[in-house]
Design brief:
Blueprint lengths: L25 H16 L5 E3 L11 E4 L9 E12 L2 E5 L11 E5 L2 E7 L5 E7 H14 L10 H21 L1
Antiparallel strand pairs: 1-2, 2-3, 3-6, 4-5, 6-7
């Protein structure tokens, strides 16, 4: 297993779509292991999508575990939302968008039904609501080349992007 570099906004690779997984071979299992290792080694990380990581050809895989003890791992391969209802408008952060600094409110479905393959190759359908629903929607967005910034109003997004540019400049001066 190996820790993989998390890409930071505005890296253009964050706009890539995850490639569908057609078979669970050893290489794909290694990607999943590396993703979990990276996830667990990253402070305050609830989930990661392969498209957030420095993989040459990121796959449509996300790993999730926001449990206190980090003992409830969930791997979703080729995930898709097949039903959704309700609405929540909550703060989100992102490991690729300076998570210790930037959080914004994003509108998401309160309840979702998801279909995905697990790390054993079994196709599962399940329901999620609240925080887990928000987390899964956030990660699926990543797999489609979207960041939570893309869900902000144009005015709000422009303001946040200006703050991010200033933050990046400050980081450059500290190096």
């Amino acid at each position: 297993m190996a820790k993989v570099k998390i890409l930071n906004y505005p890296d253009p690779r964050l706009k890539k779509n995850g490639q569908p997984v057609n078979q669970l071979d050893d290489a794909t299992q290694q990607v999943i292991s590396d993703m979990f290792e990276t996830h667990y080694a990253t402070h305050n990380c609830a989930a990661l999508a392969a498209t957030q990581l420095d993989f040459q050809k990121p796959l449509a895989i996300t790993v999730i575990d926001y449990s206190q003890e980090k003992n409830e791992p969930m791997c979703l391969i080729n995930p898709e939302i097949i039903d959704a209802s309700g609405e929540q408008f909550e703060f989100e952060g992102c490991m690729s968008v300076y998570p210790d600094v930037f959080h914004e409110k994003v509108k998401r479905a309160q309840w979702i039904k998801v279909r995905a393959m697990d790390e054993k190759g079994d196709i599962k359908e399940f329901e999620a609501e609240g925080y887990l629903a928000k987390c899964i929607q956030h990660e699926i967005d990543h797999l489609h080349g979207l960041l939570f910034l893309d869900r902000l109003s144009p005015v709000k997004r422009k303001m946040v992007e200006q703050k991010i540019k200033k933050h990046i400049k400050r980081l450059g001066k500290k190096s």
